[in-house]
Amino acid sequence: MSLKVVILESAEHDLKELRAYIVKNFSLEIWQNAYDNLKASIRNLQEFPQVGAIPDEIEKLNLSQYRQILSGMNRIIYEVRQETIYIHIIVDARRDMKSLLTRRLLRINQE
User: Which among 54, 81, 102, 111 is least buried, having the fewest CB atoms inside 10 angstroms?
Assistant: First the structure.
């Protein structure tokens, strides 16, 4: 059974930032390849939602409902609830996740 995937606004924003960074520093072709890999990884999640591991940074916060998969040099952080997969974060795997989570929480609190 294939689960429904919802890419949250935060992850959409991440994708735009990732695209801008890759196109600026590498090329549109590299971005297209990365984007194709991300889409394939998300499609794979629909069939195998429990494949991801709990990220260390998130497990330390006792948020074990979140999982991650790697797609090339990118991390996809997601949550499975009932029959739906919620994509929360899509980010370069080399980024400091603790800083990213802190900024994300601060941004939510300001809205």
Answer: 111
- Per-residue pLDDT 10s for the chain (111 aa) are 689 999 999 999 999 999 999 999 999 999 999 999 999 999 999 999 999 998 887 888 788 889 999 999 999 999 999 999 999 999 988 877 777 777 776 665 555
- 5 membership: H or E segment, kind and range: strand 4-7
* Structural tokens at position 15: 């994708």
On the CB side of 102, CA atoms within 13 Å amount to 5
Structure tokens at 59: 């497990």
Across 49-111, where does the E strand assignment appear? Answer: 66-71, 74-81, 84-92
What one-character-per-residue DSSP string does 14-53 give? HHHHHHHHHHHHT-HHHHHHHHHHHHHHHHHHHH-GGGSB
